[in-house]
Amino acid sequence: MNFDFSDDQEEIRHAVARLLDGHTSFEKSHEMLDESAGFDRDLWAKMAEGGWLAVTIPEDYGGAGMGAVELAVLAQEIGRTLAPIPFGAAQYLAIPALVAYGNADQKSALLPNLATGQKIITVALAEGAGFAPGDVSAKVVGGKISGVKSPVSDADVADVAIVAAQDETGASGLYVVDLKAKGASVEPLDAMDPTRPQSRITLNDVAADQLVGADGSAINRLIDGAAVLVAFEQLGVAAHALDISTKYALERTAFGRPIGGFQALKHRMADMFAKIELARSNAFFGAWALAEDDERLPEAAACARLTALDACQFACEESIQIHGGIGYTWVANPHLFLRRGWHLKAMLGPSTIWSERLLGALKTPETLTKKAG
What we know:
- This protein is of the alpha+beta class.
- It has twelve helices and ten strands.
- It has helices spanning 7-23, 26-35, 41-49, 68-81, 88-101, 104-115, 216-251, 263-291, 297-322, 334-348, 351-362, 365-372; strands at residues 121-124, 139-141, 144-153, 160-166, 172-178, 184-189, 198-207, 209-210, 253-254, 257-258.
- The longest helix is centred in the middle third of the chain and has 36 residues, at 216-251.
């Protein structure tokens, strides 16, 4: 098990970093917040042109056919640059669901257009605080779906959603739904990070095309995989928050010396670094488990999620503290990281949910048998 990216994966990281660095900046993020400009369509087009929207899409459907670790490389850079594009829900959940459970017609209709950026897809799991299969109340009767999903990332710009619902027998499943169809409505919500908008989707007897085989167990597996990938995005956010804080602490002076030389700030930055590195090791374990389809994925995903949540939130909050009075202002940059961190926290739920999932993974009969042996 290698807790680092390979040389080829590092080349991928450098390539996507160059693209993102050339099209993102703090100034642009502030402009988008001030103007409520939605996502960066120019960057989206450049990502599609470079093939970065098709990393895990099979070659038969216009993709690169790469794996989860390569996607984790992208996720980390998306987090680092705070890229304002509808990337996460599509890449971490929707496309994996289509690739794993879509039939030939569903894949042919969607994957090539997703690879080129001509269509945008999202995933609608949550109904309030819950997102697990057992928390779903949306219903599919006679091939038509009805229910309310909220919050849903990027639904305001998405053409299609993968929606979790129960069928007439009460069995959980995933369904492809056209968000432009009659009976589907999308209502914007106030979002902590307006560059990653949230919406409420209301569905009234909208045609639903089932992803056969995507049952409750499969949905949980997809959620575990998404947790690992979100953890890498959180790592990118946290590491950059530490970076700008360190630079500020070395430039800002008080009593004739850089404030970074004071012990209190040294301790804050050391704690940020320690939490980030712990989260990084767990994220790499999660990426390995996801790529290898290892049975320990639920445990690895929960560990990655919990430590990344802690590292990201701590680093973003400490960054504001280290910047002092200006750190609380709109014109400063720390709140950009805090906003993205809170969005990523809301995307898959708080630590209490993942603590329960970790306990559940540790208490399975298979795990207990192995530990005893």
